């Protein structure tokens, strides 16, 4: 069973080389076999006819002597056969390899007066051509079979080809063994890295990242993935810790004050009412935190709910502002609006959550008697909603952290004002889902400004609205 890629690469190479070489050899044989046979056959026919003439003119014995005198090197191996069999007992096995056997169809064909040619061409043994020519001596029919000595050279050539194939396979196999180790090493390194990551460690270093080929690119991508997974694991730990802290604080308050009320240790009615109000407030805080966590989980899912409809964006903003009237009225905050009539195609419920989070933050951090500006601007492509306040702003070096989950720029003040630190994170998720952008900056005159840009191909201004002012 092939268990390693290393072994598979080597065996695949060997099989590929064998199939390629053998296929190439047999294709070459098929391409040149007829040409080679025709050339040998032409020479054999010429010499065969000369032999036939000698035998017919001088007889068997005299013709043998003449042939030996004229061709002492015997460029052809020849033998005579009649209806009884071979006339001499010497090289019958050589001829039999080509099918020339007394009583065979080949022998009978030649004895009947028809010449034949038998071609053998393979890489393992016999190779060449045998010619069978009929002749008549003293009214007796004979069959002259001849094998050119060049056939022996072909046999040697075949053996050379076989040896060459074996050497190519051996040397190529050695090279692929070395190359396979080089190819498989990065994969083994990444396998070990995966095992390390499975144990909870993500600070891995791969030497293969220095390679310039595809495996080097894979190693770089693997390292980036490991780093991102490590960051996600760290964020997960921070998330769990933050959630635990956010839940533990109100639970502690609820448990403490409810226990005091249960033990009847508070006799003052006003004090009891204050404790009950604290319990109620903390319960509401837990409820909001639960809703926000569910919203975050929904937005983090692979397919968050997204049901876009076309509606009036300016009207939606007015409704959100009206819903916050008790809060901004209690702090005597001035609300300035510049909301021209504009339609947008988006998920109405999700964008409503964005405005609730952003405007709610603006009201929360704007001091008593402050001012909040909300305006809309747009062109043929985008719609931009801006919310500005006159609060304390945020530290410039912490702006990039404001969209992180549970982050609070001023933790001491946030503890007094409440909030889970999820509002801007949820808003960013929803805006990204709409293929938009959200940013926050400090204003020169004080306070912060949040800009939300959303795409709207069909954004059309129906009427110019005058700036509105509410107090």
UniProtKB/TrEMBL annotation:
<keyword id="KW-0418">Kinase</keyword>
<keyword id="KW-0808">Transferase</keyword>
<dbReference type="Pfam" id="PF00672">
    <property type="entry name" value="HAMP"/>
</dbReference>
<keyword id="KW-0067">ATP-binding</keyword>
<keyword id="KW-0597">Phosphoprotein</keyword>
<protein>
    <recommendedName>
        <fullName>Heme sensor protein HssS</fullName>
        <ecNumber>2.7.13.3</ecNumber>
    </recommendedName>
</protein>
<feature type="transmembrane region" description="Helical">
    <location>
        <begin position="6"/>
        <end position="32"/>
    </location>
</feature>
<dbReference type="InterPro" id="IPR005467">
    <property type="entry name" value="His_kinase_dom"/>
</dbReference>
<dbReference type="InterPro" id="IPR004358">
    <property type="entry name" value="Sig_transdc_His_kin-like_C"/>
</dbReference>
<dbReference type="Pfam" id="PF00512">
    <property type="entry name" value="HisKA"/>
</dbReference>
<feature type="transmembrane region" description="Helical">
    <location>
        <begin position="160"/>
        <end position="184"/>
    </location>
</feature>
<keyword id="KW-0812">Transmembrane</keyword>
<keyword id="KW-0843">Virulence</keyword>
<dbReference type="InterPro" id="IPR003661">
    <property type="entry name" value="HisK_dim/P_dom"/>
</dbReference>
<dbReference type="Pfam" id="PF02518">
    <property type="entry name" value="HATPase_c"/>
</dbReference>
<keyword id="KW-1003">Cell membrane</keyword>
<dbReference type="InterPro" id="IPR036097">
    <property type="entry name" value="HisK_dim/P_sf"/>
</dbReference>
<dbReference type="GO" id="GO:0005886">
    <property type="term" value="C:plasma membrane"/>
</dbReference>
<dbReference type="InterPro" id="IPR003660">
    <property type="entry name" value="HAMP_dom"/>
</dbReference>
<dbReference type="GO" id="GO:0005524">
    <property type="term" value="F:ATP binding"/>
</dbReference>
<keyword id="KW-0902">Two-component regulatory system</keyword>
<dbReference type="InterPro" id="IPR036890">
    <property type="entry name" value="HATPase_C_sf"/>
</dbReference>
<comment type="function">
    <text>Member of the two-component regulatory system HssS/HssR involved in intracellular heme homeostasis and tempering of staphylococcal virulence. HssS functions as a heme sensor histidine kinase which is autophosphorylated at a histidine residue and transfers its phosphate group to an aspartate residue of HssR. HssR/HssS activates the expression of hrtAB, an efflux pump, in response to extracellular heme, hemin, hemoglobin or blood.</text>
</comment>
<keyword id="KW-0472">Membrane</keyword>
<dbReference type="InterPro" id="IPR003594">
    <property type="entry name" value="HATPase_dom"/>
</dbReference>
<feature type="domain" description="Histidine kinase">
    <location>
        <begin position="242"/>
        <end position="458"/>
    </location>
</feature>
<feature type="domain" description="HAMP">
    <location>
        <begin position="181"/>
        <end position="234"/>
    </location>
</feature>
<dbReference type="GO" id="GO:0000155">
    <property type="term" value="F:phosphorelay sensor kinase activity"/>
</dbReference>
<keyword id="KW-1133">Transmembrane helix</keyword>
<keyword id="KW-0547">Nucleotide-binding</keyword>
<dbReference type="InterPro" id="IPR050398">
    <property type="entry name" value="HssS/ArlS-like"/>
</dbReference>
